[in-house]
Amino acid sequence: MADITIDEALRLAMSQEESVRDAILTLDEEFRSFRDSYMLPNNASQWAPLFAARVASHNKEYRHRIKQDLHVSTHNLKHLYSEGGDGDDNKRSNAMNLLLSMIIGALKTNRTLNRRLDEYINLHTHLLQGNFLSLADRVFIRKTLPDLERCREKLARDAVGVKELFDAYKPCLYVISYKRELKKCEEALSARKTTKGDIERETAPVFRILSRLFEDRKSIFEESTKLGHSHAVAWFSLSTDRVDPATLRQALAQYDVLRDRVWAQKAIHDASVNVIKDIAVEGEFAPSTVPGADGKEVPINTMRQAFDVYERICASCSGMVQLADPIIETLVEYLAVLRLTEAHVLAGLA
Length: 350
Hints:
Blueprint: E1 4-5, H1 6-37, H2 47-81, H3 94-129, H4 135-177, H5 179-191, H6 196-236, E2 242-243, H7 245-263, H8 266-284, E3 289-291, E4 297-299, H9 300-304, H10 306-349
Antiparallel strand pairs: 1-2, 3-4
C-alpha cells in the first residue's frame, strides 16, 4: 500500500474516533433514558437513594388507587343493590344476600323448566305413539319443540356460566360485600408496602456496577480524544505530508481496542439495567395479590373486577329468569291440555 496523505490519515482516524464515541453514546443514551424516567442526577452516589424514594412513592400511589377502586366498588354495590348498605354489618350484607337469592332463583327456575319440558316431551311422546293427538296438536308440538330445546340448552349454558363465575370470584365478591373483609384487604395492602430502605439495599450494588461502567466509558472517551490529538500532532510534525501505512494501521488499531472495551460492557450493562427495571416494576406494583375472603391470595386485577362480575352475574340471572318464566307458563298451559287429552283417553279405555 502506498503512503497515505496526512489529510486522509486524519480522516480515517477521526472516523475511528467517532465509532468509539458512537459506541459510548449508545450505552449512555440507554442508561440516560432510564435515569431521566426517575429523575436521577449525574451524581452516582444519589442514584440508589433517589431511585428507592421514587419507587416507594409510586408504590404508595399504586396502593392508594387500589384502595380507592375497592371503595368505589363497595359504594356502588351498596347504593345500586343494597339500598345504601342500611343494615349491613361485619356478618351481614344485603348485596350478597341479593346476589345469592338471584343465583338460587335462576338455577331453580332452570330446573323447573327442565322438569316441565321433560314432562311435556314424555306426555307428548306417549300420546303421539297411541295416535291420540289431533293433527293440529301434532303440527304445533313438532314446530315448537326445537325452539324449546334451544332455550333449554341456552339456559343450561347460562347456569354453568353463572356457577363458574361465582365460584371463581366468590372471595373477591365477599371482600366488596362485607366490611370486615374489605378492612382485612386494606390492612394487607398497607402491610405489604414497598419501603425505600428495602429498595435501596437491593439496588445499591447494581447501581455501583452501572456507575463503574459509566466512569469507565468516560475514561475511554478521554483516551480516544487524547489519542486523536496525539495522532494529529505526530502526523503534522512529520517532515513529509504522507503517513506510512504500517504506522496508520497501528494507530487505527488503537481505536479498535477502545471500541471493543466499550462493547465488552454491553452484556453486564444491559443485565444491570434490566435488574433495576425489574426491581422497579416489582416494587411499584406491590403487592400483586391480596387475601380473599377465604384467605387465599387473589391477583389485584381479579379483585378489581369484582363489582363488574357482580353485575354480570345479576344480569345473567335476570336474563335466565326472563327467558324461562314465559316458557314455563306456556308449558304449564300445554301440559294442562295434554293431561286433559290423556284423561279422556284413559276414560275411553275404562
